[in-house]
From TrEMBL, chain A:
<dbReference type="GO" id="GO:0016887">
    <property type="term" value="F:ATP hydrolysis activity"/>
</dbReference>
<dbReference type="InterPro" id="IPR017911">
    <property type="entry name" value="MacB-like_ATP-bd"/>
</dbReference>
<keyword id="KW-0378">Hydrolase</keyword>
<dbReference type="GO" id="GO:0005524">
    <property type="term" value="F:ATP binding"/>
</dbReference>
<dbReference type="Pfam" id="PF00005">
    <property type="entry name" value="ABC_tran"/>
</dbReference>
<dbReference type="InterPro" id="IPR017871">
    <property type="entry name" value="ABC_transporter-like_CS"/>
</dbReference>
<keyword id="KW-0813">Transport</keyword>
<dbReference type="GO" id="GO:0005886">
    <property type="term" value="C:plasma membrane"/>
</dbReference>
<dbReference type="GO" id="GO:0022857">
    <property type="term" value="F:transmembrane transporter activity"/>
</dbReference>
Automatic annotation (TrEMBL), chain B:
<dbReference type="InterPro" id="IPR003838">
    <property type="entry name" value="ABC3_permease_C"/>
</dbReference>
<dbReference type="Pfam" id="PF02687">
    <property type="entry name" value="FtsX"/>
</dbReference>
<feature type="domain" description="ABC3 transporter permease C-terminal">
    <location>
        <begin position="263"/>
        <end position="375"/>
    </location>
</feature>
<feature type="transmembrane region" description="Helical">
    <location>
        <begin position="256"/>
        <end position="283"/>
    </location>
</feature>
<feature type="domain" description="MacB-like periplasmic core">
    <location>
        <begin position="21"/>
        <end position="195"/>
    </location>
</feature>
<keyword id="KW-1133">Transmembrane helix</keyword>
<feature type="transmembrane region" description="Helical">
    <location>
        <begin position="424"/>
        <end position="446"/>
    </location>
</feature>
<dbReference type="Pfam" id="PF12704">
    <property type="entry name" value="MacB_PCD"/>
</dbReference>
<feature type="domain" description="ABC3 transporter permease C-terminal">
    <location>
        <begin position="722"/>
        <end position="829"/>
    </location>
</feature>
Length: 223, 840
């Protein structure tokens, strides 16, 4: 394998739940190549989403090492992780997670503004047009359908041109037609931008569109 | 209803989580009203209990300018066990010059008494001694402040008029002083006989006599009053009795108390905003429960009743907490309040103010919870998982609108009934509703402005500021709750501060430029030439005005009791200065009618102040009866003229033709306009030559008025502060309610690469902007009100008091920052993964 863009070594994650500490991930080791598309599948509670969060630095691993884009993420603090994501990573969620107090255009512009891009709004408008929502730029999330919101979320994730795109069940909250359209768009944009895509999904047909599929069971890789 | 009750009690089993702000807002608003009401009642009860002591007897007959006639005295002796005569007047105390000091002078309010004084209560002196002993043989006692001002020690001599007195003790407590009203000079107490040769109590000089009576047990005071007034009709007598021993104080406390309760109502209105928000937030959390109940067959009325019962029970709890606090606070602070009050108070648990506060609380809770409750009817079972309640801003059904209007009307009517003043209540209620309306509109405007600002090119690349503006202008805005909660309290504080500042500014800055240096009263007719001669040649004196001065009570208008025609107008309260003049003074503008001819000697004619005439509903040709020195003089109003009181010069409401009054014994008043450096010398010369003349230094009077205004402004500000504290609580509630939204926002922003610093900056900016906006809007509302009051009511010039304006805006910013940043830590430290997994 060529030099991986994302590398996990013996990653553990334990979270404090109502019933005390719960072990979520048990010694995950994994390399992802630049430009690869990878599907994480497995039953509910197997740790797919948690693994994705750990990869994105949204959850702090309790053991092991994580490196991405030649940078060791393991011991970075929250602000340093945020700065890393700002420049290298995009995230798409099942529940879209648009900021409700901002219009579609503003939502897409936020990561560009945070990265200090002077043409943030022009680029955000272009991204919206690329997902077919140029005309809905001034609409707030609650004025859009689920499919439209997810397209905005896609545009937002890809606007800073991240090397890595993380997607957590991006069609999980959408009906069949909308889900399919969003998926086509996701793969199309990824192909265009050449980002590495790591996607959590329950849908086998989506997983099959990826270069590689990894199955998780009880927090362990089940390859 | 039974089903609703069962559902309601089941739901309440989960505890009162989320109702802290509801209970706090309601309890605080009610506690403030109950505390003010309880204190007012305590003072009024104290006045009632000690009525006789405050009055100095069971009943009092007061005359202006004269002693009682033989008939009057005989009647009093026949009714009373004991009668005591006192006189009350202003005069000058002069301390003769020493070897190396010039004479000291000071204004004093002299009370001369007979041996029977005081009939009730006790005079306290320092050193302790009986009053009889202290004021025997030209002895005198005075308040410490006066003795200190004059540098007098016990045993020192001083003069009042032409009489010489010796200070024998300091007056520490005067039992009948509460009814004294507004006095310009501290008290000196002497024996009436000692004044016999002082040249002060001559006919025509300004003095009051009061005859206090100690009556047999069981005397019907009302019947006795009727008897006195019938027997001595048109004698100018004024009756007071122990039922209301200090009428001025009682009226003042009653009015100020009523006003502060009404200010307290504004606190309840602000609390209502928090109550409404808390209920809305609670019902939003219950959307799925409501939808499920509907799915299972619950009717709209059952749903409404289920939640109305819950809110009702919580309201009862809130009211109970408020009443306990409102009743306990005055009791706990009683020793401190009593020590500061110049009048007695009877602190206890008084039911009436508590009932009043409970009724206001119940109405306010009903008004502010009805709309959110009504919206439960709009939740459809099919919208089980939609945010159906949160964005439903449609008006509730008509029946609820009518019910709301009815509740508001009932609240206002209760306030009128309790305060006893429809005028004040309607203005206050109208003011509260108008300000809340303006604030709601301003909040909408602010949201639109913030939403528009986020699209400005200048804001691009400034994510923290744009996030802040987006949060203010976006759909989950908190602008309305911040502006409504802080706005009302800040508006009242701004208005009070601006009015107070302008009025005191006008008095302190503008008045000295146009006001005279001295008022001289009690100038006898034979002294007038000498008085004028001393001033005529003095280059430091720019102007001297003199006028004959009598005092009279307007008893009838068009032969009917004056109060029936003109109500409670201030001109009819007590006695007024009356003068006569051959011709209209220079510069006087006659607005209607014409002045009498210079040689007119016919039936009495009156020229009356135009503005007051309009307020009293007087027209040319009306007749007016004035009781002067016990004699009724009836004249016809033949002209109205402008009288300007704002310059503190001589201004008489009522002027008559000379023939009508010349025969009555009277003195003269004068105003002297002189350079400040010459004032002392003028006083020395005139007081030396005419010891009976009293000089009132206008600057001292202005300072005294300024002190009174400051006290009133402080009391009102205190009331407004309660509103502000409630507003702050509402703000805390709003900040707490928005924590989830901000946590989510912070999580998304962190995912997109925002540092904690950027997120915190955005939170601080939105709080600061909201606070500044709330402060600015409140300031505009306060300034508008203050300008209107200053211009149209006070008729003074208006200039913005910048210190107060700045304080209002800083106050707004500080309050919102404190409330919102207090809740910033949670969203900042929350881990994004956990938040985003839960979803929005």
């Amino acid at each position: 394998m060529s030099n991986p863009i994302l590398s996990l070594r013996d990653v553990h994650l334990s979270l404090n739940g109502n019933a005390g500490m719960v072990d979520i991930l048990h010694g995950i080791s994994l390399d992802v190549t630049k430009g690869e598309t990878l599907a994480l599948i497995g039953p509910s509670g197997s740790g797919k989403s948690s693994l994705l969060m750990v990869m994105g630095g949204l959850e702090q691993a309790t053991g092991g090492t994580i490196s991405a884009v030649n940078q060791d993420l393991t011991n970075l603090d929250e602000d340093a992780l945020a700065a890393f994501r700002r420049h290298h990573m995009g995230v798409v969620f099942q529940s879209f997670h648009l900021i409700p107090t901002m219009t579609a255009l503003e939502n897409v512009a936020v990561p560009l503004e945070l990265a200090g891009e002077s043409d943030a709004f022009d680029r955000a408008q272009a991204e919206l047009e690329a997902v077919g929502l140029g005309a809905r730029a001034d609409h707030y999330p609650n004025q859009m359908s689920g499919g439209e919101q997810q397209r905005v979320a896609l545009a937002r994730a890809l606007a800073p041109r991240p090397e890595i795109l993380l997607a957590d069940e991006p069609t999980g909250n959408l009906d069949g037609t909308n889900g399919e359209a969003v998926m086509d768009l996701l793969f199309d944009l990824r192909d265009r931008h050449g980002a590495t895509l790591i996607m959590v999904t329950h849908a086998p047909e989506l997983a099959n569109r990826c270069d590689r599929v990894i199955r998780l069971r009880d927090g362990r890789l089940d390859q | 209803m039974k089903t609703a009750w069962i559902f309601a009690t089941r739901e309440l089993r989960s505890g009162l989580r989320g109702f802290g702000i509801f209970l706090a807002c309601l309890a605080l608003g009610i506690a403030a009203i109950a505390a003010v009401g309880s204190t007012r009642t305590a003072i009024l009860k104290g006045l009632e209990r000690d009525g006789a002591a405050l009055l100095g007897g069971d009943a009092e007959l007061q005359f202006t300018y004269r002693f009682a006639t033989a008939d009057e005295r005989a009647w009093m002796q026949s009714q009373a066990i004991q009668v005591s005569e006192i006189t009350d007047f202003r005069s000058m105390i002069v301390v003769p010059s020493g070897a190396d000091t010039s004479p000291e002078r000071a204004l004093t309010q002299v009370k001369s008494v007979d041996a029977a004084y005081p009939l009730v209560g006790e005079v306290k002196l320092s050193p302790e001694m009986p009053l009889d002993q202290a004021i025997a043989a030209n002895g005198a006692v005075m308040e410490r402040v006066l003795a200190d001002r004059l540098g007098l020690m016990i045993g020192d001599s001083f003069s009042i008029g032409t009489g010489t007195f010796r200070l024998s003790a300091i007056l520490q407590r005067e039992p009948d002083n509460a009814g004294g009203g507004f006095g310009l000079g501290p008290r000196t107490l002497v024996r009436t006989e000692s004044l016999a040769n002082a040249g002060l109590l001559q006919t025509g000089t300004l003095f009051d006599t009061k005859y206090r009576m100690l009556l047999p047990e069981g005397t019907e005071l009302a019947a006795l009053e009727r008897d006195a007034e019938q027997r001595f009709a048109n004698s100018g007598l004024r009756w007071t009795d122990a039922r209301n021993g200090a009428p001025g104080v009682q009226q003042f406390v009653d009015r100020l108390g009523a006003f502060l309760v009404l200010v307290g109502l504004s606190g309840l209105a602000v609390g209502g905003v928090g109550v409404s928000a808390a209920v809305r937030s609670y019902l939003e959390r219950k959307t799925s429960v409501i939808a499920t109940l509907k799915t299972l067959g619950a009717s709209r009325s059952t749903i409404f009743a289920t939640y109305a019962i819950q809110i009702g029970l919580l309201t009862i709890l809130g009211i109970a907490i408020g009443l306990v606090l409102g009743a306990a606070l005055p009791l706990a602070l009683a020793p401190i309040i009593e020590a500061r009050l110049p009048v007695p108070a009877e602190f206890a648990i008084h039911p009436k103010p508590l009932i009043e506060a409970a009724i206001y609380g119940a109405f306010a809770a009903a008004i502010f919870t009805l709309w959110p409750l009504a919206r439960t009817e709009n939740i459809r079972a099919a919208t089980l998982f939609r945010d159906a309640l949160g964005h439903d801003n449609a008006l509730p059904r008509k029946r609820y609108l009518f019910l709301t209007a009815g509740l508001v009307a009932a609240l206002v009517l209760s306030a009128i009934a309790f305060s006893g003043t429809a005028f004040l209540t309607l203005w206050t209620a109208g003011g509260i509703i108008a300000v809340l309306g303006v604030l709601a509109l301003a909040a909408r405007g602010l949201r639109a402005l913030a939403a528009a600002a986020t699209k400005m090119r200048a804001l691009r690349g400034r994510p923290a500021l744009r996030l802040a503006l987006g949060a203010i202008g976006g759909p989950r805005e908190q602008a309305s709750s911040a502006i409504l909660s802080l706005g009302l309290g800040l508006s009242v504080l701004a208005a009070v501060g601006q009015i107070d500042g302008n009025l005191r500014g006008a008095i302190a800055r503008d008045l000295p430029d146009v006001a005279p240096s001295y008022f001289f009263v009690d100038i006898q007719s034979d002294q007038l030439n000498g008085f004028n001669a001393r001033l005529a040649g003095d280059p430091a004196v720019s102007r001297v005005d003199t006028a004959p001065m009598l005092r009279g009570v307007i008893s009838k208008i068009n032969d009917r009791p004056a109060k029936e025609i003109a109500g409670d107008h201030w001109v009819l309260q007590g006695d007024r200065g009356v003068t006569y003049a051959q011709t209209a003074a220079d510069g006087v503008t006659i607005t209607q009618g014409s002045w009498w001819p210079a040689d007119y000697t016919g039936a009495p004619q009156i020229s009356f102040a135009a503005e007051e005439a309009e307020e009293m509903g007087l027209v040319l040709g009306d007749t007016m009866t004035i009781n002067i020195l016990g004699r009724d003089i009836t004249g016809t109003i033949t002209s109205f003229r402008e009288v300007d009181f704002s310059t503190a010069g001589i201004g008489f409401i009522l002027t008559m033709n000379p023939a009508a009054l010349q025969g009555a014994p009277h003195s003269h008043i004068a105003t002297v306009y002189a350079t400040p450096e010459a004032e002392a010398e003028i006083l020395r010369d005139l007081a030396g030559t005419f010891p009976n003349i009293t000089a009132i230094r206008v600057a001292d009077a202005i300072a005294r008025v300024g002190e009174l205004l400051a006290s009133l402004a402080a009391a009102t500000s205190l009331g407004a502060s309660a509103t502000l504290i409630t507003g702050f609580l509402v703000l805390i509630g709003a900040a707490a309610a928005g924590v989830d939204a901000r946590t989510f926002e912070a999580a998304v922003l962190k995912t997109l690469g925002a540092s904690k610093g950027v997120i915190l900056k955005s939170f601080a900016l939105r709080a600061g902007l909201l606070g500044a906006a709330a402060g600015t809007i409140a300031l505009i509302a306060g300034l508008t009100f203050a300008w209107a009051v200053s211009t149209f009511v006070m008729e003074t010039s208006f200039a913005i008091v910048w210190g107060n304006a700045l304080a209002i805006i800083i106050g707004g910013v500080a309050a919102t920052m404190l409330a919102f940043l207090g809740y910033a830590w949670g969203p900042l430290k929350a881990r994004p993964a956990g938040i985003l997994r839960r979803g929005n």
